[in-house]
Amino acid sequence: MNSTDAQVSWKNIWEKKGNVTAENVTLEDLIAINGFETGAGAFPVESWLQFVEEIKIELGLLDDQKLLEVGCGSGAFLFPFFNSGIIVHGIDNSGSLVNLCSRIMKGGVFKETEANTLPFNENTFDAVVSNSVFQYFPSLDYSEDVIREISRILKNKGKVALLDINDSEKEQESISIRSEKIGAEKYDRLYGNLKHLYYNKDWFFAISAELGFNCTIKDQNIFGYDNSKFRYNVFLTKK
To answer: Where residue 108 falls among pLDDT bands split at 50, 70, 90?
Structure first.
């Protein structure tokens, strides 16, 4: 992400979360490190595993195919794929989180980099995912550049899952619920100067048409994850 004050603050938050020295790190730990631990953002492990399995089926990944996660964070989303034998790759702009991924998923490939400059050759990956990351990008222009980069490194007929996208039509309700869950004072202290991006669904349809993707959008309905009702998932297939 770029070096505006807000984005540096987000980066600092994730760098601190990645400073984990414990030898035995569980999936529950990884989910919490990725920010899904309190309030409306709490995400039960059972629901997480079910969500990952549904996305795996949606992507149609085989064991010998390559998967990239853009904004991999702690690796919580990739971890079940890794355990099933999928060849996993991840990028993140937090060095501490990239190091954590490398430690817990030996044999995976993880790089510290910006999401809009992916350090991979064209037509490298069978599938790309990005879970709950687009909300932290600094602008829609940046987000568009990310999707263009994903298109570049994706194989023909490859599939993309952009997950947990903030719905612009539900922005005010989402903010109200988040604030109520952790308290207005704490919410302002934690997020007052930090912005989340919200997306109109038509924006994804327009970018998809320009880049030659088939696009399907599905509302989320994840048990135990309160933010789910304000977010949706975008599925792209490269023509």
So the answer is: very high
Residue linked to tokens 């414990």: 22
pLDDT, tens only, 96-106? 999 999 999 99
Token pair of 31 as six digits: 């989910």
> Burial of 63 by CB count in 10 Å (0-12 exposed, 13-18 middle, 19+ buried)?
exposed
- Is residue 101 within 8 A of residue 108, CB to CB? The reply is yes
> Domains along the chain?
5-238 (3.40.50.150)
pTM over 0.85: yes
198 contacts: CB under 8 Å, gap ≥ 6: 135, 166, 167, 168, 171, 174
Burial of residue 168, with CB atoms counted within 10 A of its CB: 0-12 exposed, 13-18 middle, 19 or more buried: middle
d(CA 211, CA 215): 11
What is the per-residue pLDDT across 174-185, written as a single tens digit (0 to 9) for each?
877 766 766 666
